[in-house]
Write a structure and sequence with these properties.
The complex is a heterodimer of chains A (295) and B (316). Chain A is an all-alpha fold and 295 residues long. Chain A has two domains: 19-76; 81-291, MetI-like (MetI-like fold), CATH 1.10.3720. Helix content of chain A is 72%, strand content 0%. Chain A is built from 15 helices and no strands. In chain A, helix 3 packs across helix 14. The radius of gyration of chain A is 26 Å and the shape is flat. Chain B has 316 residues and is mainly alpha-helical. Chain B has a single domain (85-314), classed as MetI-like fold, CATH 1.10.3720. In chain B, helix 4 (87-120) runs parallel beside helix 8. The radius of gyration of chain B is 24 Å and the shape is globular. The chains are: A mainly alpha (295), B mainly alpha (316). The interface between A and B is large, with 126 and 132 residues.
Chain lengths: 295, 316
């Protein structure tokens, strides 16, 4: 860039006669220092999670000693939680609502995006801007009217209340549209010439070509839905229907001083997502980098 | 769930204002299938996003109650007047903004520094990505439980570290002046990974020859960072800052679980105020008015973001 050029011009003194070897040594030293600092921070970043795992493997009585060493390692806390059974209900609720949200979002958003990307119809730009507004609307600010709405529909304490408002995510439409815009038009136009209708073209040609973006949107929607606290907290008061975050937030106090149990419940609550992350790490990271999604 | 997108996601080159040639924009036989394909999304969107937005604004002019059906009596600007003259409202707004001020600079600067360092590392990048991004994937409730435990007086790991360094143990979550800092600290740990990944992607887009050419000219690594990296990343930085501000303004989960907005309401943010007014005091109309004010705040920041990204995209 221009700033670079002016910089080297302004400081002729900064261009000493150095050998390639000394530059290499300096660069290597610098990179080594960088790596050391970063490794230190990365380890610090892992401490809270490591501490939670460590605590969960202690007997409850032993958690009052603040040490990493465990005298009597045990899985008792996990056993207690599984035996209690709440966690299974929470898992079921979280899986059902998150899967339904992910599937619903992928389906309705990709259909709308296909129409916006490929079809020429009146008021297309009106629809486009109308959906664009949705990106700016903070859903958390809508809890009051949405709650009133769902209580009027008699859908409180059902999965519908959790899933339905999460499906129409405007951002998903734009992510799909961007991807579809980049697909060559010859493919679906050829299909159309062969007599396939728009819906058939979408389902048989476009969707199979869009696997990367479908999986990115599906994974993200799943993770957000899984982590959503405020809205499920409001609409799910029945303990049998609570999702993982709601369950954890609600029982948080009831464990009292049983810190090992508390940490075990936190780890179990996070486990499915951690597994998803480990499996789809690249796709998740690339998805963020490519689209700037944020929950 | 509110989501925001990078500028690329809102790219819409073929769309032009309709006063251009209409015959080119529309095509015979497209309208019916197009509306059919969009119908499911638009129906849900109208029903659960746009509808409630309008309903919220309407409700804010009425004395609506959670326990009674219907809107209740007309209140005019009464709810807004009450909110704007309520110290509780202003305190919660201030806590939201204070939290945003506390979290945004470290979340932007640290993410940038860590990404810069990780970009120089030739090996073990997966490890850095794992270490910094893993917390971001945790549900807020899990993160909150872990940090409550770390902050527990006498037994918590953080207190132990501080006392072993010879300081008195602070009352992390129990002291009104410190609690918000503790929440911010935990949040930085929790969400830094997202910005880290955005910066890492931005760094990889910078052509390597720029660095090579400048090191031929004898530029030190520090000069390269100041003169190449930071200017080249300006677009990523503005994206990260605005996304971070929007995300921080929406704070609810951490104070709700970790401090219940306390001690003595010292950490109650705007959304929790809405929650308390609407769902504890059942004053739906008033809560809707507060939501509307909060809505306008977030919408304004988001609009700045959409404006920024679209302008950059058009190269104006």
């Amino acid at each position: 860039m221009t700033t670079l050029a002016s910089d080297t011009r302004a400081r002729p003194g900064a261009r000493p006669q150095v050998t390639q070897a000394s530059i290499d040594r300096r660069v290597r030293l610098f990179n080594g220092t960088c790596a050391g600092v970063l490794i230190a921070f990365a380890l610090i970043w892992l401490v809270p999670i490591a501490w939670a795992v460590d605590t969960s493997l202690k007997p409850n009585a032993e958690t009052t000693k603040t040490t990493w060493w465990i005298d009597h390692p045990t899985l008792d806390s996990y056993r207690t939680l599984f035996a209690q059974g709440d966690i299974w209900n929470w898992y079921a609720s979280s899986f059902i609502t998150s899967l339904a949200t992910a599937a619903g979002t992928v389906l309705v958003a990709s259909m709308a995006a296909y129409a916006l990307s490929r079809m020429r119809f009146r008021y297309r730009w009106v629809v486009f801007w109308f959906i664009l507004i949705g990106i700016m609307i903070p859903q958390q600010a809508l809890i009051v009217p949405q709650f009133k709405e769902f209580s009027g529909l008699h859908l409180l304490n059902t999965y519908w209340a959790v899933v339905l408002p999460q499906i129409p995510a405007a951002i998903a439409v734009f992510i799909f549209k961007q991807f579809f815009d980049g697909l060559p038009r010859d493919l679906d136009e050829a299909a159309r010439v062969d007599g396939a209708g728009f819906f058939r073209t979408y389902w048989r040609i476009i969707l199979p070509l869009s696997r990367p973006v479908v999986s990115a949107v599906a994974i993200f929607t799943f993770v957000w839905s899984w982590n959503n606290l405020l809205w499920p907290l409001l609409v799910l008061s029945n303990p049998k229907l609570m999702t993982i975050p709601v369950g954890l937030a609600t029982v948080q106090g009831s464990y009292g001083i049983r810190y090992a149990d508390t940490m075990a419940s936190a780890i179990l609550g996070a486990l499915p997502l951690v597994l998803i992350f480990l499996f789809f790490q690249r796709r998740i990271v690339e998805g963020i980098a490519g689209t700037g999604l944020k929950g | 769930m509110t989501i925001t997108a990078d500028y690329e996601a809102v790219e819409d080159q073929p769309v032009r204002p309709v006063d251009t040639d209409n015959t080119r924009v529309t095509e015979h036989g497209h309208a019916r299938p197009a509306w059919l394909l969009m119908a499911p999304f638009l129906a849900l969107y109208l029903l659960f996003i746009i509808g409630p937005s309008i309903y919220m604004v309407v409700m804010s002019f009425f004395d609506t109650s959670l326990t009674k059906p219907g809107l209740g009596g007309f209140a005019g600007f009464g709810n807004f007047g009450e909110a704007l003259s309520s110290p509780d409202f202003w305190a919660s707004m201030w806590h939201t903004i204070w939290f945003t001020i506390l979290t945004t600079p470290p979340l932007v600067v640290l993410a940038f520094v860590f990404a810069l360092l990780a970009d120089r590392a030739s090996r073990a990048r997966w490890f850095f990505r794992l270490a910094f991004f893993l917390p971001y994937i945790l549900p807020s409730a899990v993160m909150a439980l872990i940090w409550i435990w770390l902050y527990t007086p006498q037994l918590g790991l953080l207190g132990k570290i501080v006392t072993s360094l010879g300081f008195a143990e602070p009352n992390w979550l129990g002291s009104p002046s410190l609690a918000m800092w503790s929440l911010a600290f935990a949040t930085v740990w929790w969400t830094l990974g997202f910005n880290f990944v955005l910066y890492l992607a931005g760094l990889q887009d910078i052509p390597r020859d720029l660095y090579e050419a400048s090191s031929m000219d004898g530029a030190s690594p520090w000069q390269q960072i100041r003169r190449i990296t930071i200017p080249m990343l300006s677009r990523t930085t503005s994206l990260v800052i605005v996304l971070q501000i929007i995300a921080s303004l929406k704070i609810f989960d951490q104070p709700y679980i970790m401090t219940s907005g306390g001690p003595n309401y010292a950490t109650r943010p705007a959304l929790e105020y809405v929650y308390d007014m609407g769902f504890t005091d059942f004053r739906t109309g008033y809560a809707a008015a507060v939501s509307t004010l909060f809505f306008i705040l977030v919408l304004a920041v988001s609009a700045v973001w959409v404006f920024l990204t679209r302008r950059q995209e058009q190269g104006l």
